[in-house]
Amino acid sequence: MTDDRPDLASELSPREFLRWIWRQLTSMRTALSLLLLLAIVAIPGSLLPQRGVNPRLVEAYLIDHPTVGPVLDTLGLFSVYTSPWFSGVYLLLMVSLVGCILPRTAVYLRALRARPPKVPRNLLRFPASSELVTSSSPDEVVAAARTALGRARVDVVERELPDGGSAVELSAEKGYLREAGNLLFHVSIVVVLVGVAMTALLGYRGAAIVVEGDRFSNVLTQYDEFGSGALFDRDDLPPFTVTLDDFAATYQVDGPQRGAPRSFEATGTYAEGVDGSEHPFSIRVNHPLEVGGASVFLVGQGYAPVIRVTDPDGQVVYDEAVPFLPADASYTSNGVVKVPEARPEQLGFQGFFLPTFVQGDDGATRSVFPAPLAPILGLFVWHGDLGLDDGRPQSVYVLDKTKMTQYMTGDKGYRVSLQKGQSQKLPDGNTITFVDLKQFARFQIAATPGIEVPLVGIVAGLIGLIGSLSIRPRRTWVRARREGSRTVVEVAVLDRVPRVDLPADLERFTGRMTEQLVPVDEGDAS
Amino acid sequence: MTLEQLGRLSNYSVVSATVILALAFVAYAAQWGLARNVAAVRQPVAVPGGAEAPALDDLEPDRSDVAGGIGYSLTSLATLVLAVGVVTRGLSAERVPWGNMYEFSCVGILVALVAYLVLVRVWDIDWIGALVTVFAMIVLGSSMLFVYVPPGPLVPALDSYWLVIHVIGAITAGAAFLVGAAASILYLLKARAEARTPEDERVGFLWRMPSSAVIDQVAYRVHAFAFPIWTFAALIAGPIWAQAAWGRYWGWDAKEVWAFITWVFYAAYLHARATAGWRGKAAAILALVAFATFLFNYIGVNLFVGGLHSYAT
Ligand code: HEM
User: Fold this and answer.
1) b/e map of A437-458 (b: 16 or more CB within 10 Å)?
2) Is residue B139 within 8 Å of residue B105, measured between CB atoms?
3) Which of A79, A278, A306, B101 would give a disulfide with B147, using CB separation of 3.0 to 4.6 Å?
4) Which residue's alpha carbon is nearest to atom 27 within ligand 1?
5) Please, what is the end-to-end C-alpha distance for chain A in angstroms?
6) Interface ipTM
């Protein structure tokens, strides 16, 4: 490698300096370093929570680590894969890749038209070479060599030897496809990177929780989470609706895997367009619904107790199914109920839902099975101002307690504990009822236009890779000259990539050749 | 047989395979130990310039060879028993036997052992046996101790034919990576010894192994075989499945990140071998680092980091 002379840089003209930079960047060694660097800079993203993957975990991390957190944040460590330094490394790798592909393609195209290199003068100097004698004529030797070679590009010439005799020389080259495979592979990497960028820019992805009986419309306000690429216009969401009629979950009921999920299925109807007709659907894990250019995936589920609050006058002030987000495998779930219409003050509830509760020896309840065999709702109660009116958007899963006071029983929080159908009168005269239990499905709705580009790219890349790793470019030279009644044959093989088993290959090749040749008479052989 | 009986038979088989592997390891260790005072005798013909020391007329090489033969037979037996364990596991769970970490380990080791046994026939690589058996024994043993789950149906997310394709690809590549890593370790040992040991002190098992150039070639070929399979499993089948299951083909989940890191390191290894100054030792070290990232993905990410893929445990 001649491109390792950094001290030269200072003496070069700007133009030469740029060329020098370009040569550095496109050298194999730089590509190697960039590859290693890319692997290393990807690591922190797997160990720290990422905004693009799970923003809630990032917020939790920032709260738990008030000193380190913000520092890591400024370094972009919570969005590694969109950070300037990560992008920097992979852009450099792209440049290096392109800078490597272009000249190599030119070289390859020239090599494709070139003839195999002439037979060198002294064949027996090559590490993988041998000599044999036969009674066949030089032309027969060459014909045998061609057969033994199989598919290859072959040149045969007759040449005068310095000693006055003549020799038939064969030079052959095969394995051109290796470089083609290698180029295809590297081009494919570029295609994949471009395709990935494209799908990210053009696509969108969001998640929404839909309770049984409810309808989801594909508009921004109905999403709990939404993200889209820079080239996607958020007003451009294709109109469709999905109505969830029923959510069915089954769990292992016995054996050591008791409680393990067995199947989830969301069924209902969907309609495409603004006033499209309704069609039935069934969405299961791994089996999304395709609608309006998007796919609707089932990515989660949980319980939504229907809660009713009546004020002291008997007026219903709240009657809704409230999704409680599951926190563990037996669906211990957490949730919040906000009742702004309650009298005399607004009410806020925060607590848990257990689908199958048991009471432990310590008096604490916990869930032992994910299906709702013995559901219970346990809530603490706050009264005051929910803070809904000050204009700031609020999460429906968080209770802002800054302007609220908790009801107490002695020094413990006042507790609401309801099984299905039960009611409880609160200290302020309102009544809360656990009316019914519904389930909710968490859908992920995603459109990934152009996803075929990275797919085709990577598949082409794999084909190229297999070619590049399995095809051996090889040169074979044979020289046959007549010496009296015998023909002396010199053979040498050379691989572009040095290999230790070349001599064995040579032996096999000469073996295939001699099979077709007439051996020298016993008495004649020396 | 009932499903429970099949499950129990599977457990007994895996335990037995582990024990037999331990014995095989002892035999292979004896193969090394017994050759302690033996000079090189088994250099294959294909080694260019490999100085071939004359065979010593000694009983020791025979004893070493016998131990090696026993090691090979025991490894074959362990493979057979483990195969029974894997098949009965699948029968008792009524599905493909690779749905959780315990099962991945069993199938992965089974594939690695088969690969090893085949390669011993093709390339005479029984010198790798000690490393392969000890690793297989550790993986099987610790899987039974730490991540065992009784046979049962799959969680819904895994219930897809992509499980069959994606996981079998990952396991095959992983098994080959394991053999490649073992070869790389031996390459480093042998290359070091070749550089440091004077001609007349070259005794012991290391000198009955092929030259470092041959070992390097074996390592390269195994890696070159594994890398496209890994590319397929991790970067094609995985994303296709993720797209079907989660609506995004790539989400930088911890498992995906490490699969990518592994891929990049092995690509770097292949590049290193074509780059001046990186051939040989540096390339072998890269291969080992790459294998470490593979192991970390399998053990560390599954057990400690978590993420969407953590149902694998
Ligand atoms: C994502 C980045 C890359 C990956 C995954 C990758 C992968 C590979 C692989 C697997 C090989 C081995 C094929 C063989 O042995 O022939 C290879 C060879 C090669 N790569 Fe890359 N490559 C990457 C980037 C680059 C870049 C940026 C360059 C340009 C400097 C480059 C230059 C080469 C060259 C010159 C070879 C041929 C080596 C030989 O002839 O054996 N690669 N690449």
Assistant:
1) bbbbbbbbbbbbbbbebbbebb
2) yes
3) B101
4) A97
5) 48
6) 0.83
Domains, chain A, in order of start with CATH, read: 14-112 (no CATH), 116-175+472-525 (3.30.310), 204-447 (no CATH)
Closest among A337, A253, A238 to A295, alpha carbons compared = A238
- Alpha helices, H only, A114-214: 138-149, 176-202
Alpha helices in chain B (DSSP H): 3-34, 60-93, 101-123, 129-146, 161-196, 212-232, 238-246, 254-273, 281-295
From the CB of residue A245, how many other CB atoms can be counted at a distance below 10 Å? 13
CB distance A229 to A206 below 8 Å: no
The verdict on a CB contact (< 8 Å) between B248 and A205 is yes
How far apart CA B273 and CA B48 sit, in angstroms, is: 20
Confidence category of residue B306, pLDDT binned at 50, 70, 90? low
Residue with tokens 């770097």: B268
Contact assessment for residue A469 and residue A175, using Cβ atoms and an 8 Å cutoff: no
Separation of CA B93 and ligand 1 centre (Å) = 43
DSSP conformation class of B201:
G
Contacts of A118 (CB under 8 A, 6+ apart): A155, A157, A169, A171
Average pLDDT, chain B: 83
What Cα–Cα distance (Å) separates residue B234 from each residue in A21, A244, B215, B264?
Answer: 34, 34, 27, 12
State CA B263 to chain mean position distance. 17
Flag whether residue A2 sits within 8 Å of chain B, measured between CB atoms: no
* Contact of A333 with A327, CB cutoff 8 Å: yes
The string of pLDDT tens digits covering residues A134-148 is 888 888 898 899 888
Residue closest to B23 by CA, chosen among B130, B169, B162, B111:
B130
**Site of tokens 């095809």:** A471
H or E stretch covering A357: strand A357-359
Instruction: Tell me if A47 and B305 make a contact (CB, 8 A cut-off).
Output: yes
Residue B207, judged by CB atoms within 10 A of its CB (0-12, 13-18, 19+), counts as buried
Measured from the Cα of B263, ligand 1's closest atom is 5
Residue A183 above 90 pLDDT? Answer: yes
C-alpha distances in Å from residue A135, one per residue of A166, A279, A488, A496, A510: 17, 83, 9, 33, 15
Question: Domain limits at B118?
Answer: 3-312
Summarised one tens digit per residue, pLDDT across range B34-75 is 777 666 544 444 334 444 444 444 445 577 788 888 999 999
CB atoms within 10 A of CB B215: 26
Task: Kindly give the distance from the C-alpha atom of residue A457 to the centroid of ligand 1, in angstroms, as a whole number.
Answer: 16
- Measured between alpha carbons, how far is residue A179 from residues A99, A184, A218, A515 in Å? 16, 8, 49, 32
User: φ and ψ at A157, to 5 degrees?
Assistant: -130, 155
What is the largest distance, in Å, between two alpha-carbon atoms of chain B?
68
Check residue B53 and give its pLDDT: 42
Q: How far is CA A486 from CA A137, A307, A324, B35, B121, in A?
A: 8, 104, 94, 49, 40
Burial label, A510 (beta-carbon count in 10 A; 0-12, 13-18, 19+): buried
Total number of domains constituting chain B: 1
Q: What pLDDT digit, counting tens, does each position of A357-407 carry? A: 888 777 778 888 888 888 999 999 999 988 887 767 777 888 888 888 999
Q: Tens digit of pLDDT for each residue in B82-103? A: 999 999 998 888 888 888 889 9
Interchain CB distance below 8 Å, B264 and A38: yes
Tell me which H or E stretch contains A106: helix A84-113
**CA B213 / ligand 1 centre spacing (Å):** 22
Using a 6 Å CB cutoff, which residues line ligand 1?
Answer: A 26, 28, 31, 35, 93, 96-97, 100, 182, 186, 189, 465, 468-469; B 267, 270-271, 274
Q: Counting every residue, how long is chain A?
A: 526
